[in-house]
Write a structure and sequence with these properties.
Layout: E1 14-21, H1 27-37, H2 43-55, H3 65-75, E2 83-88, E3 93-98, H4 106-113, E4 118-124, H5 131-142, E5 147-153, H6 162-178, E6 184-188, H7 212-218, E7 232-233, E8 236-238, E9 250-254, E10 259-261, E11 265-269, E12 273-282, E13 285-287, E14 289-291, E15 295-300, E16 311-314, E17 322-331, E18 337-338, E19 342-347, E20 350-364, E21 369-372, E22 376-377, E23 382-393, E24 406-410, E25 417-423
Parallel strand pairs: 1-3, 1-4, 4-5, 5-6
Antiparallel strand pairs: 2-3, 7-16, 8-9, 9-15, 10-14, 11-12, 11-16, 12-13, 12-15, 17-23, 17-25, 18-22, 19-20, 19-24, 20-21, 20-23, 24-25
Helix pairs in contact: 1-3, 4-5
Amino acid sequence: MSTINTVDAGATSLLRFATAGSVDDGKSTLVGRLLHDSKSVLADQLEAVEHASRNRGQEAPDLALLTDGLRAEREQGITIDVAYRYFATPRRRFILADTPGHVQYTRNMVTGASTAELAVVLVDARNGVVEQTRRHAAVAALLRVPHVVLAVNKMDLVDYAEPVFAAIAEEFTTYAASLGVPEITAIPISALAGDNVVEPSAHMDWYGGPTVLEHLETVPVVADPSDDPGRFPVQYVIRPQTAEHPDYRGYAGQIASGVLRVGDAVTVLPSGRTSTIEAIDALGQAVDVAWAPQSVTVRLTDDLDISRGDLIAPTATAPSVSQDIEATICHVADRPLTVGQRVLLKHTTRTVKAIVKDIPSRLTLDDLSQHPAPGELVANDIGRIVVRTAEPLALDAYADSRRTGSFLLIDPADGTTLTAGMAGTAFAEAAADAAPADAADDEGWDF
């Protein structure tokens, strides 16, 4: 099979990354330093920061003020959410998800890191690895974030001592590696002084690795989509039925993973019907091949009953379908998730009714122990669930595909998002193999 030409880590590539760290570890200052030293701050923004810093009696600009305004509002209870920031250097473009550091906002890190290709986890050099550090590493592992950077901050407050950095790096690396994090890069920094953030530090000549920005600019993130199985969730069926196109039937959507080619034998799920790709239209032009994450219209040789929510996949690598889903979830709603609860399950473009059949365990992130049969999961809890859906779904294991292995549970009464789910096993197995609990049968939900 021929490969698709992809962009390397050059000027046109895009890196999505998330920052995480405990309160007062200096995350705001790091983000501000990255924006400032990479020349990504507008003149009027910098002037406002300088003015605010002078009013506080500070001689130098407090770069944390570039982000702290929104964070202060969140911490006062006005809103609790992820803040996204966009910046670029001559080598790469970036989308930064700045996540809150409080323990009770673990769900917000899940939101910010769910699409990230890299996570920066901050540690205060004076405190070392703390419970929240382990929690952030565990969430990154659960979400299969491929690259993790440990930024050991405030090295200036420990006299830039190499043994302090080495001990923290070893402890974190050992813990994160035990979770299955594939790549860990430890960097000693002082966000306040600018050491090893954008420019190399003159105070740590014992460190020979990259700065934070250098690593962000060069870490490989663009993979060959040919390595992944093709997945095409149908979003919209196009049937103009005009005199010019009387027989046109196209299926529009965004390719979730892999590659589609004209002539490919495909299977439509969950029905299992088969056909062949007759044509692919991209941006109004016919193409022979398309790959993720392009938005295209696919036409098949056979006139099949296909609608929104169906999944088109190459027959040779088509996923299996099931109504019973075992998954690791992070509960994001304030109302608990309970056994027997009726929910809607949204997977790609498909939404179906479902019942929570069992909650076998809740995960304790500080030591990765499993609390069996908790009965319910509350906000920020991570646990294992078993769900029964009203209709078959074609889910991949989350370990194989972050896009088609993830789903949401939604409250059918008001549309509130309850839970973010990851199909299949996570880094830790449930401690007990409890049998699914019976759920009461209500009309329309008996399946």
